[in-house]
Amino acid sequence: VLVSMSLSLLIHLNVNIYIPKGDCTEIIGGKAVKPHSLPYMALLTGRINETHGKSCGGILINQKWVLTAAHCRPIDKVYLGVHSRMDRGNGVGVEKSIPHPKYQNVRNGNDIMLVLLKKSVKETKNVHIKPPPKPVPDIKANTKCFVAGWGRTKEGGAQSDVLLSVDVTVIDRKKCSDMYKKYWPITNEMLCAGYKNRDPPADSCQGDSGGPLVCGGELRGVVSFGKGCGREEFPGVYTFISQYDEWIKETIRTSE
Predict the structure, then answer these.
(1) What CATH number matches the domain at 2-20+39-130, 3.40.50.150, 2.60.40.10, 2.40.10.10, 1.10.3720.10?
(2) Domain map of the chain by residue range?
(3) What is the dihedral of CA 130, 134, 138, 140, to 10 degrees?
(4) Is 111 a catalytic residue?
(5) Tell me, what's the pLDDT at 79?
């Protein structure tokens, strides 16, 4: 999907922004958050070619590293402390992006990536670090969580200018696997979350890729993919961060 927007702060011209995430990456049924109330949120942008760019979400997990989805490549700028995409400052350059070595495509899993910033960032009122928590074996079905991002507010709609969040509920993995079995496998390295009998529906969608799934105040997932947006029969699918705890630690330890 291509959306025209100004990127003058980044590249001094108008470009088309490609908004990735499997088939869907929006904040469906969400509301604007209080400005800077999620200070670990990162807005990631990258150039595909001379006239096209892309944007994703991410999470600042330490002073030099941002966690996001592997399918968000390429990334060349990271913006922190952002509420409005149109008022985001100069951003921080990217030293390198390191996708999980087993990542091939979004639907085969391992959709996780670490982004090393060119310089360390200092925590401020609007910029905070949110490290991954101690890993857990799984997240129970019916756990209440929220997802945040600058994605579309409806399937096929426009991307949000301000940061949005929406409450979602973790879906039993076997149920989720049954829902998706005609399309893609749901593995133990994935979490599913959506809504039950809610109007409007709740989900992530285009533009939210790489953003956080937060459960009980803890970072548990990264927005990966879905089929459509806000469809009860196809909940959003997230990379389960606990399954990648050792990879995250080892990559950071050996890559700076």
Answers:
(1) 2.40.10.10
(2) 2-20+39-130, 144-243
(3) -70
(4) yes
(5) 97
- In this predicted structure, what is the pLDDT of residue 203? 39
Q: Which of 100, 111, 203, 208 is catalytic?
A: 111
Query: What local confidence, expressed as pLDDT, does residue 229 receive?
Result: 52
CB 49, CB 229: distance < 8 Å: no
CA angle (77 as vertex; 26, 110 as ends), nearest 5 = 55
Q: From CA 95, how far away is CA 117, in angstroms rounded? A: 5
**Catalytic residue list contains 71:** yes
Residues 202, 203, 208, 212: is their CA dihedral positive or negative?
positive
Does domain 144-243 sit in CATH 3.40.50.300? no
pLDDT digits (tens, 9 = 90+) for 99-148: 999 999 988 999 999 999 999 999 999 999 999 999 999 999 999 999 99
Q: Determine the pLDDT at residue 195.
A: 73
Q: Which of 71, 160, 204, 208 is catalytic?
A: 71
Catalytic, out of 97, 160, 204, 209:
209
Q: Is 204 a catalytic residue?
A: no
